[in-house]
Amino acid sequence: MSSPEIDVLVLGGAGVDTIVHVPELPLPFADSYMIRPGIETRAGQSGDFVALGAHALGLRTHHLDMIGDDHEGELVRALHRDRGIPLTDVLQPGGTKRAVNLVDPQGRRLSLYDDSRSRETDRLPEETVRALAGASRHAHVVITHPCSAALPVLREAGLTLSTDLHNWDGDNPYHEPFAHAADVVFLSTTALADPERAMRRIVERGRAQVVAATAGADGAYLLVDGEVTHIPAVTPPAPVVDSNGAGDAFASGFLFGRLAGEPPLRCALYGVVAGAYACTVPSTRADAIGRDELLARVKELDDQDATTTTATVPSA
């Protein structure tokens, strides 16, 4: 049997964001605001950012999703074409997914997703999913409706799966098929009253070997083999300008480590380094940390830890 041609198959999450810079969040009611640097529209939603991040780290990446025959769809296709990321797009009758992101001066984001683009009947063709899965080592599944229907086909193909539940509240049943089918589950602590309880429930009810919960400036929490470990945040390499895409970058960095055979704690370190870099990228750009920069930054952190350890060991 030949080796897989694709390292990471990303399903779903292709779309376009309109970025609106606001003076503060929450935004007080007013008749109007004069804003700078202004309003811009660019391709890039969750699946796009995971694909971009994985590709930048040297992983052979392929993106599959439903995209409209519209201007926004052309922006998505152009992003992949310009970055050299293979894209298989299936026509989405309702049009390309869109969102408006309000971004404040501290880089915090509030996203407004246009829910009118998707339909209950939207599906990724089973034969296309099966063919791409058969050529892949791993699939990262975005929590959109067509991807939910593709989960059984991916599991039958025998490749490992990951998903990102984003700001799941721990109770919404919509997220459960994704959480229970994946080997690696990412999520945010933002809406969780008890993050550890939610993480353990994912493991108990599904097949996850690893659950990673990102916590912004507090770093992340990793559940492996029944033990929860805190992964401290790292200092970003430049000023923080936007948190958009940080969770997707964490996932890309983590998967880079996992597919290289690194242990989960090391994978999580890659994730927080990639996530910190993403926070320095303006919301109007789609960019990701490269492999050399990621490894160099991790080596710096290793060297710092080694120096600290040596300094604290008492002399004989």
Automatic annotation (TrEMBL):
SUPFAM superfamilies in the record: Ribokinase-like (SSF53613)
UniProt keyword Kinase, yes or no: yes
InterPro entries in the record: Carboh/pur_kinase_PfkB_CS, PfkB_dom, Ribokinase-like
Keyword Kinase: yes
Keywords: Kinase, Transferase
GO molecular function: kinase activity
Tree of life domain: Bacteria
Domain Carbohydrate kinase PfkB: residue ranges: 50-286
Name by which UniProt lists this protein: Sugar kinase
Lineage, highest ranks first: Bacteria, Bacillati, Actinomycetota, Actinomycetes, Kitasatosporales
